Amino acid sequence: MNIAVELIAQLERFAQVSTLPRIRALHLPPADRAESKDAEFCALELDDDAIGLSYVLLDDTLKQLLKNDHRSITDMTALDVARWHRDADGSRRTLGFAAVNALSRCFFDRVGFCPETSSDSLGQMAPVAGDHIGMIGFFPPLVRKLVAAGIRLTVLELKAELAGEFEGYSVSLNAEDLSSCNKVLSTSTVLLNDTLEHILAPCARAEIFAMVGPSAGCLPDALFARGVTLVGGTWINDGRAFAEALNAGQPWSGFARKFALKREDYPGFEALLGRLP
């Protein structure tokens, strides 16, 4: 059973014991801000104020989302759209993942679960001399930070033009090159392009596998079961202000906080489900 199938199965169980919200609105960044940090995500807002994010810069996803009329999405249940993450592809899969994240936030709110705040962009892996860190996705500020600290670094990328040996680090197209890493930092985009399970296999010996990113907001059970040790995402505090900023392509970090959830600190879906009235 793949991760998307497991996520939808959990949300369907949630729906069996609690009435789930419908979709209130889809929020998209403006086309002219597509290359900025604050325009990399779309947001689905539910009618209980929960918001879920999804990355929109894979292939032509943002272009398709901006071109299509999505007003009809507000006539759908959030669970119906969430199923697109399992059953569809392209921009519909992206919207499906946003719905999965929104319903996950809805679930956490209803059971009174709130992960701890964290500002650590390295997923609390505390790099030290002797570490070999793997990075899935090229994050220049983090690369510079690790190289400056003298940490051995291997970056896994999909873009062939980025591959090569550089001063203090290497960029590879082969996931097997992560097999000697004792700590791995992954972008949550691997949940959208279905590469996580392929990447986890060579990382089986890593003591830490942290997945971070604004769209790392889904129920984490399936991730923890496969070897992810920490999930770090975005917890939106002011939904209205957040949506207005995203629609304008403006910074939205002031309306949200970063969180970190360790595998050992998570009660699990079954235990949380039991808290529902």
Textual characterization of the structure:
This protein has 277 residues and is α/β, with parallel strands linked by helices. The chain has a domain of 129 residues: 2-Layer Sandwich (Enolase-like, domain 1), CATH 3.30.390. 31% of the residues lie in helices and 21% in strands. The strands form two sheets. It has a nine-stranded mixed beta sheet with strand order 4-12-11-10-9-5-6-8-7, covered by helices on one side. The mean pLDDT is 93.
List the helices and strands and how they pair.
Blueprint: H1 3-17, E1 23-27, E2 41-46, E3 51-55, H2 61-67, H3 78-82, H4 84-87, H5 90-111, E4 116-117, E5 132-136, H6 140-148, E6 152-156, E7 164-166, E8 169-172, E9 183-187, H7 196-200, E10 208-212, H8 221-225, E11 230-236, H9 239-248, E12 256-262, H10 269-273
Parallel strand pairs: 5-6, 5-9, 6-8, 9-10, 10-11
Antiparallel strand pairs: 1-2, 2-3, 4-12, 7-8, 11-12
Helix pairs in contact: 1-5
